[in-house]
Amino acid sequence: VQIRTTGGPATAEEIEAVDSVLGAPTSLWEGGTRTELDDHLARGGHEARSRRHLLLPVLHALQDRVGWVSRGGMEYACRRLAVPPADAYGVVTFYDRFATDKRPPLAVHVCDDVACKCAGADELCAALEASFGPSGATGSHSGGAWYRSPCLGLCDRAPAVLVERAGMRHAQGRITAAAPDTVREVLSGAAWPADEGPRLAQPRSELRLLRRVGVVDPESFDSYRAAGGYAAFRRALELGPEGVIREITDAKLLGRGGAAFPTGRKWDAVARTPARPHHLVCNADESETGTFKDRVLMEGDPFAVVEGMTIAAMATGCEHGYLYVRGEYPLALSRIETAVRQARDHGFLGEDIAGTGSRFEIEVRRGAGAYICGEETALFNSIEGKRGEPRNKPPFPVQAGLFGKPTLVNNVETLMNVLEVLGVGAAAFAGTGTGESTGTRLFCVSGHVRQPGVYEVAMGTTLRALVEKAGGLRDGHTLQAVLLGGAAGSFVTEANLDVPLSFEGTRAIGATLGSGAVMVLDETADLGTMLLRIARFFSHESCGQCVPCRVGTKRQEEILTRMLAARNGNGRDGDIALLADVAQAMRDASICGLGQTAASAIQSAVVQLGVGR
Amino acid sequence: MVILWGSNARETHPIFFHHLLKGMRNGARLVAVDPRRTSSAEWADLWLGLDVGSDIALANAMAREIIHAGLADMEFIHRATTGYDDYARCVEAYTLERAEHDTGVPGAAIKEVAHAYARADRAMICWTLGITEHHNAVDNVLALINLALLVGKVGRYGCGLNPLRGQNNVQGGGDMGAIPNRLPGFQDLEDAALRAKFETAWGVKIPAKRGYHLSQMFEAMEHGEMRAIYVVGENPARSEADQTRAVRLLSGLEHLVVQDIFLTQTAELAHVVLPAAAGWAESEGTVTNSERRVQRVRRALEPPAGARDDVDIISELARRLGTDWGQPTAEQVWDECRNLSPMHAGMAYRRLDDLGGLQWPCPDESHPGTQFLHARLWKDPIEGPPAPFTVVENEPPVDTLSEEFPIRLTTGRRLDSFNTGVQTGQYTSPLREREALLLSPADAARLGVADGEVVRASSRRGSVEVPVRLEASLRPGLAFMSLHFPDQVSTNVLTIDATDPKSGTAEFKASAIRVDKLTAQVH
Q1: Where do the H-state alpha helices sit in B54-106?
Q2: Which H/E stretch holds residue B395?
Q3: Which residue in A485, A464, A381 sits closest to A94, CA to CA?
Q4: Distance between CA atoms of A553 and A589, rounded to whole angstroms?
Q5: In chain A, what residues touch B24 (CB-CB under 8 Å)?
Q6: Fewer C-beta neighbours within 10 Å, C or N terminus of chain A?
């Protein structure tokens, strides 16, 4: 660990920010002042390096406090955590949230992704550009800058803007259905509107997983208990770990994160792995374009997430859980943190959960703007304080995951389903949906529908029925396509609108349910621009670790740009074949799901919708 | 557990340190014993920052603590060692209180390391010049050997005493008899029977008495007793302590021959310079590394015009002196060595190629080589003689601190440079900084000198002008310089040539200096 300062010492403000996470240094060697003991003794090594996992929280603290991560601030953090600065620099530059150049304290992130484009994001960006210069420009006015952003997970209230002010009183907020004037005022120093929780358009009687959203007070443990909270936990105690796993297995619950792996089998594998300790990770890094169901759950029913994690931990022998919340979800983050704190205060987390004698703690971690961290092994690296690069599998997480230990990773919606299974029983749960896909599913319907939002329907409901539930298309408009499963999903046309929304149903038409994103595009959408946005998204979000993805996503973007320009006569022969070739290479040879699906939506548009021809 | 004692391996043995890092990643704990908190020490679980030259006090106090805690391996001691009782009596005086006084290291930390070392399943001690560049170098090494014997941490996997070699083939130099009292294979020159074996093979008489080691050579030059020297791959004009004297003596020789791959400062003083091929890339042969493993070296490049392989040069020299050896290949020379040195006998080139090297002793071609030299101590009964404990007492550095010379200067090396810079000086390195006197900020403030200011550093032997660099990791009273840039600053003008009579090594690690502002001197 050679730590040399090349960027000047950390400022008092930066030291305070780092110390707010780590406590004050106790020796010269940790970055403090020399004491007599320091002349002849220093402690470090494994103990010092064991706090590496706090690197991201420390970087967040710096970013929150001063609006960027200076070299001096980073090096102070490095000394505190015994991380080589070159290594830390690799981490800082990996995550979009951390700026390595000085920035004004006010940052306004404007989503220009697919769903927001349908609601006028491009016009909003054009208006900001006219007033404040291009994305990232800081010259023309003081105090703030605006930045184009990929999907912020607020597609139900597009166009969406995330606002952040660094400083002693760091604050994050959002502007939904953002009008240019409102954003301009905020950028000029006005207060941003107060945040509201999620709203559901669906009749309550249809809701299971969502039934408490909008009903309970998301910041009150008592309100959660009064609404039936921790009944599933009691049931789990009666069943015991093996009973719970049997129930989940019998319910045929499949993971809702995108891979649709049988949850019961995963839990069983972790429970049986002899290595200790076991870790639990709740993947709440919902970053798939057009996906916001986990946000709605966390904002509207955060205690249920905590309860679901507690049950999973008890069933699989985990004493420590991490809840990794997407960085762009400030309200979800604060509500989850409140829920964890209150659950601990009420004895439902900690040394002796609800008098059972078992121990379980939840640590809430905040993402830092990296789509790839939704991939489970990238998520582990991120929690460990490293670049969020996926690992090779095997070993699988159930054998060697977080910190090299057996790890159970579940998505928020999956844990919500666990409560449901324990509530109604495996048989009743499996009675809903189709034979292979049991239960209900949350869909995030956005784009050109009358009532965008999260909708809960039984597995196997048709896409047509779902779109109708969201109010259908605006009068006088016709459907162009539906992007199912987000940027990593694929386009579905009018012809396939009767596809049953189940794992097997979508598979049959070569599509995927993925994360539950359903982005509806009518004939006014410029599909070419949308595809280019998706291509840019992937080339930006590729972690760069493996060649097929690093190079493939870039080539895909270039070819697509050229093809779309070809409408003006600049195209090249064979571009469609070349694009297909790159897609194949990425699908076959990428390490993780990002590269494997980076061509999926674009290919489906080229093949089914004739884009580029 | 690994104890790095008097070694900044992170910078001076970076390849070895990478192996150490792997070990640490697998859970090994590292203790660094060094006056400075070096970049190696930054990786350590515990750094014991002892005062320069107090190593024996520390080692003996650890031993006393181990004995009193009942952690000594008495079974091993009784079976495989001698001299324990005298040793135990000696270390009894080294209480933690005394050690804290002598070394500066808190007694509790000494106790902690002693217990951890004794209790570890596997633990090794590695050292380099921080142990050996002292007037009592051999005693320092013996103190560490005593410690390892006390807890039976020798001759076993993951244990042992490892002097880290400074170059890939320092061990090989010894293997081949480049030691005043040894023939190839460490065979005693003063043993008539062994000498006779070589005399028969070579058909010449070998001097029956051992030669001089380096420090004795300089004394002999001083007395006019040694008037010609043949220097191969050394730069004594810059690497010797008390450099003024060294250059004077080398310049006064009747004949000086230097064989090197660079025109070193010593070569500039020579009457004849023999340009040599680089051992690691331009010639064939073998090297022996720190774990006694003999490995093949292959020629990858032709040497530049005029430079010749060492074997060629020596053979040609022999021919001109009247003995025709022909033009032996490296393998022929090696096979001759195998015939005469039993420990190398089984190491045919073919086997070295196939097995990626072999560790001596390897007495015949069916022998797999020897992984642990002292595994013999664990045989029941032991093979060979028992290992002796040696009574050693703490002796502070010769160059004592005084009011006139209040700062302890210690010297060492840096990652980007090698020794006197002969091999590294012509390459740039982003890490390299010009030579400077590294001072603690507290000392600099007391002296009223600023970072970068050129000062006069003086010892009882001489003085140099050198810029100051503030180094926050140095404690007050401790200063550091390297020897990498002799043309910029002749560090060895300051160092003392107080030499350990047993090893011939000078006390480079401990000088007493004073630091004066230049402006003050002008007035």
Answers
A1: 55-68, 74-80, 84-91, 96-103
A2: none
A3: A381
A4: 13
A5: 45-46
A6: C
A309 vs A284: CA distance, rounded Å: 12
pLDDT, residue B483, reads: 81
The answer to whether A505 touches A491, Cβ cutoff 8 Å, is no
Number of neighbours of residue A293 by Cβ within 10 angstroms: 29
Which residues of chain B carry a pLDDT beneath 70?
Answer: 422, 520-523
Phi-psi region of A280 (alpha: psi -120 to 50; beta: other; left: phi over 0): beta
Determine which helix (DSSP H) or strand (DSSP E) holds A239, and give its type and residue range: helix A231-250
Task: Report chain A's mean pLDDT, rounded to a whole number.
Answer: 94
Nearest CB to B43 within list A28, A45, A47? A45
* CA distances, A328 to each of A95, A176, A368, A385 (Å): 12, 13, 8, 19
Nearest to B125 by CA among B25, B6, B24: B6
Is the complex ipTM higher than 0.85? no
pLDDT single digits (tens) A532-578: 999 999 999 999 999 999 999 999 999 999 988 876 555 677 899 99
- For the stretch A437-466, pLDDT in tens is 999 999 999 999 999 999 999 999 999 999
Quote the CA–CA distance of A521 and B84 in Å, as a whole number.
88
Q: What percent of chain A has pLDDT over 70?
A: 97
Residue A341 CB contacts under 8 Å (≥ 6 apart), including other chains: none
Measured from the Cβ of residue A134, the count of other Cβ atoms closer than 10 Å reads 11
Q: Which residues pair with B183 in a beta bridge?
A: B187
- Which pTM does this prediction carry? 0.87
| A44 interfacial to chain B (CB closer than 8 Å) | yes
Q: Does B517 touch chain A (CB under 8 A)?
A: no
From chain A, pick out residues whose CB is under 8 angstroms from the CB of B475.
34, 38-40
Report helix angle A302-316 to A231-250, nearest 10: 60
What DSSP line would sit under A175-205, residue for residue? ESS--HHHHHHHHTTPPPPPP------S-GG
Confidence of residue A141 (pLDDT cuts 50, 70, 90): low
Residue A509 makes CB contacts below 8 A (sequence gap 6+) with: A492, A496, A499
Contact: B42, A3; criterion CB under 8 Å: yes
Q: Are B409 and B512 in contact (CB under 8 A)?
A: yes
Task: Please indicate whether, in this complex, the C-beta atoms of A39 and B50 are within 8 angstroms of each other.
Answer: no
CA distance A372 to A487: 13
Q: How far apart are CA B88 and CA B94, in angstroms?
A: 10
Position B523 scores a pLDDT of 44
**Is A4's Cβ below 8 Å from some Cβ in B?**
no
Q: How far is B138 from chain A (nearest CA, A)?
A: 25
Q: Which residues of A401-419 are buried (b: 16+ CB within 10 A; e: fewer)?
A: bbeebbbbbbbbbbbbbbb
The DSSP element (H or E) to which A318 belongs, if any, is strand A318-325
**Does residue A159 have a cis bond before it (omega within 30 degrees)?**
yes
Q: Listing from the earlier edge strand, what are the strands of the sheet with A407-411?
A: A361-366, A318-325, A278-284, A407-411
Kindly list the distances between the CA atom of residue A551 and the CA atoms of A370, A536, A542, A581, in Å, as whole numbers in the listed order.
Answer: 18, 13, 9, 13
Whether residue B104 contacts residue B33, with contact meaning beta carbons closer than 8 Å, is answered with: no
Radius of gyration of chain B (CA): 24
Contacts of A39 in chain B (CB under 8 A): 49, 104, 475-476
Count of helices and strands (H, E) across chain B: 20, 21
Asked if B475's CB is within 8 angstroms of A38's CB, the reply is yes
Facing A45 at nearest CB: one of B37, B44, B49: B44
- Long-range contacts, B179-185 (Cβ 8 Å, 24+): B180/B210, B180/B211, B180/B212, B180/B213, B181/B210, B181/B211, B183/B340, B184/B337, B184/B340, B184/B341, B184/B344, B185/B337, B185/B340, B185/B341, B185/B342, B185/B343, B185/B344
How close is the nearest chain A Cα to the Cα of B389, in Å?
29
Q: Do B44 and A44 touch (CB under 8 A)?
A: yes
| Cβ contact B48–A40 (<8 Å) | yes
